[in-house]
Amino acid sequence: MRTVHSPFAAAGTSAARTRVYTIRVVPLGDANKLLVSLDVTDARRVESMRSTFVANVSHELRTPLTVVSGFLEYFIDDGALDAEQRRQFARRMSEQTARMLTLVDDLLTLSRLEAEDAPASEEAVDMAELLLQLRAEGESLSDGRHRLEVICQGPALRGNRKELHSAFGNLVSNAIRYMPAGGEIVIEWAVRDGAGVFSVRDSGVGVAAEHLPRLTERFYRVDRGRSRDTGGTGLGLAIVKHILLRHQASLSIASEVGAGSTFSAVFPDWRLPPWK
Ligand code: ADP
C-alpha cells in the first residue's frame, strides 16, 4: 500500500483554500489496483492549530519561568543578597508565579468549556443583580481610576450564571485594563429587536479595524506589552466567545482607535421570558 500526500490548490486561490488529499493505491488481485483518495484538509488544519497552540502556551510559560529561575540563582548563593534585595526579588518571583497561575486557570477554563457542548445547568439569571455585582468587581479592579455606570433595562436571562458572570466579567475587566485613568464604562443590559443585548462600552484606547476579526483568537493581542502589564493572558476573549456560543449568543465589537470600544453579547429571544 502506498500513501501519497498531495496538496492541490485551484489556480488563483489563496493558501487558505488549499486542500490536502491522501491518495492510496491498494493492489486488487494481480491485474487491478484500487485508488482511494481522502480529503484530509480539516485534519491537517486541526493538527497545525494544535501545534501552534502548544508552541504559544510554552512561550507564555517560558518567559515567567525564566525570570523566576534567574532570581532563584541568587537565592541559592546565600551571601549574594542583602535583606532588601531578597524582598524585592521575592516580590518579582511572586508576580511571575501569579502570572503563570492565571494562565493555567484560563487554560483549564477553556479546556473545561471545550469538553462539554452545553452548560451543566441553566437558570433564570437575575440580570439586575448580576450587573451590580459586575460593577462592584469592576470598581475594585479600577481602584477609583474610572467611572462605572450600570443600566439594566432587560428582564432575566436564561443561562448558566457562573459562565455568564465569567464572560461578562472578562468584558468589564478588559474595558478597565485598556482605558486610561479618568475614562468611563457603561455596562448595559437591554432588549433590542427582540434580542437580549449585554454590552460594555468604554472610552479607552480602541482597536483598529484590521484587528477586530482576530480578537477572539487565543493569544491574539494588539498590544502585547499593555496586555502583559495589566495581567492579561490573551485568552479572555476566547473564553467569552466559547461561553457565548454555548448560549447560542454572538459577540459583536464596534471600536474606534483613541475613542473607545463597545463589546456586545447578543442573546436569542428564547433566552428571555416568557420561557416555555
Ligand atoms: P488579554 O488578556 O490580552 O486582554 P483578551 O483575549 O481579553 O486578552 O483580549 C485580546 C486583545 O483584544 C487584547 O490583548 C487587546 O489588545 C484587545 N482588547 C480587548 N478588549 C479591549 C478593549 N476594551 N479595548 C481595547 N482593546 C481591547
Describe the structure.
With 276 residues, this protein is an alpha+beta fold. The chain is 43% helix and 25% strand. It contains six helices and ten strands; from the N terminus they run βββααβαββαββααββ. It has helices at 41-76, 83-115, 127-142, 161-177, 224-229, 236-246; strands spanning 2-8, 19-28, 32-39, 123-125, 147-152, 157-159, 184-192, 195-202, 250-256, 260-267. The strands form three sheets. Strands 5-7-8-10-9 form a five-stranded mixed β-sheet, with helices on one face. A three-stranded antiparallel β-sheet has the order 1-2-3, covered by helices on one side. A hairpin with a 2-residue loop joins strand 7 and strand 8 (195-202). Residues 1-14 have low confidence and may be disordered. The chain binds adenosine-5'-diphosphate. Adenosine-5'-diphosphate (ADP) binds at residues 174-175, 178, 202, 204-207, 215, 220-223, 227, 232-238, 261. Adenosine-5'-diphosphate is lined by residues 174-175, 178, 202, 204-207, 215, 220-223, 227, 232-238, 261.
Gap from first CA to last CA: 57 Å
Ligands, deduplicated = adenosine-5'-diphosphate
Q: Strands of the largest sheet, in order across it?
A: 5-7-8-10-9
Shape: flat
Question: What is the ordering of alpha helices and beta strands?
Answer: EEEHHEHEEHEEHHEE
Strand content: 25-35%
Q: How does the major sheet shape up?
A: 5 strands, mixed
Overall pLDDT level: 92
Radius of gyration: 24 Å
How many β-strands, per DSSP?
A: 10
Low-confidence stretches: 1-14
Helix and strand composition category: alpha+beta
Given the structure, what is the number of helices?
Answer: 6
Helix content: 40-55%
